[in-house]
């Protein structure tokens, strides 16, 4: 499945403008044959927008979700995007996957909140593995800091995730996560990982870009730079099956030795 990574911070504070950016990117991705477009963490509203996070938060089936579904359907590709989700009086840092026919396939709430900014504005999610089937691949969702916990990604591997999409707001000086940690996560768990970042200065944060689609061999299939960019690469189920046969980490595990981890 050709996967498009939208590296952009959009227009922080403006849902309308960010939907326009998403629409334009979906048009380019669809024309290039992509079956999936992934946008960054909190793409719908912006990340460093303070109390506007709560003001702009919407339900998973809100007006903006309908707008994204319309974009996906019109351009004929699935879309994964980050947004602030309001539910039962609290706000989650969430990411939603919408199919090419506009159906909502999966909604994930970030389980590991990073720093005081996130802990002040969000409630952590409690479901670590959220998946959906898409074009013959089992697609899982995480958000940014979540992927830095090896247990989190291993849980996805054990649940059969083939492609892990990770909308991200990765900031300076932690660019080594994009450069090194993400390819290693892909290799040690034998999956593709699509890590899609914001860029530039936003409030107190400097986002570093470097979005990548890492393969199960630990090699980046594509790598963005430090600016606004749309990059594409393929998540190939045939290559994935061959890699899993050659690198049987999951089969060679000895869970009985790992009890001290929990």
Structural description of this entry:
The protein is of the alpha/beta class and 262 residues long. 30% of the residues lie in helices and 28% in strands. It contains eight helices and 14 strands. The chain has a six-stranded mixed beta sheet. It has a six-stranded mixed beta sheet with strand order 6-7-8-9-12-13, with helices on one face. A hairpin with a 2-residue loop joins strand 3 and strand 4. The longest helix has 17 residues. It is globular and about 50 Å long.
Question: Treating each run of at least 4 consecutive H or I residues as one helix, how many helices?
Answer: 8
Give the low-pLDDT segments.
Answer: none
Share of helix among residues?
25-40%
Average pLDDT level:
97
> What string, H for helix and E for strand, traces the elements in order?
EHEHHEEEHEEHEHEEEEEEHH
The description of the largest β-sheet is: 6 strands, mixed
Strand percentage: 25-35%
Using the alpha-carbon principal axes, give the shape: globular
* Alpha carbon gyration radius: 17 Å
Structural class: alpha/beta
Read across the widest sheet, the strand sequence of neighbours is: 5-4-3-2-1-14
Tell me the number of strands: 14
Distance between the termini: 36 Å
Write the layout of secondary structure elements.
Elements: E1 2-7, H1 15-31, E2 36-38, H2 52-56, H3 63-75, E3 78-87, E4 90-98, E5 104-109, H4 115-121, E6 131-134, E7 137-141, H5 150-158, E8 163-167, H6 176-189, E9 192-196, E10 199-202, E11 205-208, E12 212-214, E13 220-223, E14 229-234, H7 237-246, H8 249-252
Parallel strand pairs: 1-2, 2-3, 7-8, 8-9
Antiparallel strand pairs: 1-14, 3-4, 4-5, 6-7, 9-12, 10-11, 12-13
Helix pairs in contact: 1-3
């Amino acid at each position: 499945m050709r996967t498009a990574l939208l590296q952009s911070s959009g227009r922080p504070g403006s849902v309308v403008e960010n939907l326009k950016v998403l629409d334009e990117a979906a048009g380019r991705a669809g024309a290039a044959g992509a079956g999936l477009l992934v946008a960054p963490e909190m793409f719908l509203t912006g990340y460093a927008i303070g109390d506007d996070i709560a003001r702009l938060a919407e339900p998973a089936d809100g007006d903006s979700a309908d707008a994204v579904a319309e974009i996906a359907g019109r351009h004929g590709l699935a879309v994964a995007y980050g947004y602030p989700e309001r539910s039962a009086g609290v706000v989650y840092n969430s990411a939603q996957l919408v199919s090419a026919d506009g159906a909502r396939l999966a909604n994930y709430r970030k389980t590991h909140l990073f720093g005081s900014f996130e802990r002040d504005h969000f409630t952590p999610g409690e479901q670590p593995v959220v998946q959906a089937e898409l074009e013959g691949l089992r697609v899982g969702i995480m958000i940014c800091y979540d992927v830095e916990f090896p247990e989190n990604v291993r849980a996805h591997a054990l649940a059969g995730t083939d492609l892990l999409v990770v909308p991200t707001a990765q900031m300076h000086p932690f660019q080594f996560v994009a450069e090194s940690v993400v390819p290693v996560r892909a290799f040690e768990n034998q999956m593709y990982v699509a890590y899609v970042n914001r860029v530039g200065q936003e409030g107190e944060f400097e986002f570093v870009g470097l979005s990548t689609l890492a393969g199960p061999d630990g090699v980046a299939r594509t790598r963005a730079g430090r600016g606004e960019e749309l990059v594409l690469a393929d998540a190939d189920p045939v290559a994935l099956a061959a890699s899993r046969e050659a690198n049987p980490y999951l089969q060679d595990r000895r869970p009985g030795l790992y009890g001290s981890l929990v």
